[in-house]
Design brief:
Elements (H helix, E strand, L loop, with lengths): L1 E6 L6 H14 L4 E6 L2 H6 L2 E4 L5 H10 L2 H11 L2 E3 L2 H4 L2 E4 L4 E2 L4 E5 L38
Parallel strand pairs: 1-2, 1-3, 3-4, 5-7
Antiparallel strand pairs: 5-6
Length: about 150
């Protein structure tokens, strides 16, 4: 069976991610083993990797490095399907303004805080940290959004 590792580095919304991914796999009729792991070797053996994160960027980066998972993440980025969620996606950049923290450098660029006066299309000020549901507006066709309004 296909194996999907959800990286457990002591932070993040792990159980909600685990439950939602397992449910999605069942609904899709996929025979896949989905598990939480903080073991770099086990993460490296997985076919797919999900990298959730929650909390402050400096704490997440320190926990990831302390557990030796940073190398497993870099390996997964190069070699298999990979999905970063929230801070798990921010850690992939060179740097973050949050805590003036270096990331893993997979993507060039910096994670920057929203400007204080930034507003959404309805005129409401964006909150920091930004949480909740948003509307995605497609600007071009993409297979990821086929059949999704």
């Amino acid at each position: 069976a296909m194996q999907t590792a959800i990286i457990d580095y002591g932070m993040g919304n792990l159980h909600s991610v685990l439950k939602s991914v397992r449910t999605a796999g069942q609904l899709a009729g996929k025979n896949t083993k989905i598990f939480l792991s903080g073991d770099p070797d086990r993460v490296s053996r997985a076919d797919k990797v999900i990298f959730p994160g929650q909390g402050a960027m400096p704490d997440c980066m320190a926990a990831l490095t302390r557990g030796g998972l940073d190398e497993a993440v870099k390996d997964a980025l190069k070699n298999k399907p990979f999905f970063g969620i929230c801070v798990g996606a921010q850690l992939l950049f060179d740097h973050s303004e949050e805590g003036n923290t270096d990331g893993l450098g997979w993507f060039g660029g910096k994670v920057r805080r929203f400007a204080r006066d930034l507003r959404d299309p309805q005129g409401c000020r964006l909150k920091v940290p930004h949480m909740g549901w948003n509307t995605v507006r497609q600007t071009q066709n993409h297979p990821l959004f086929q059949g999704i309004p």
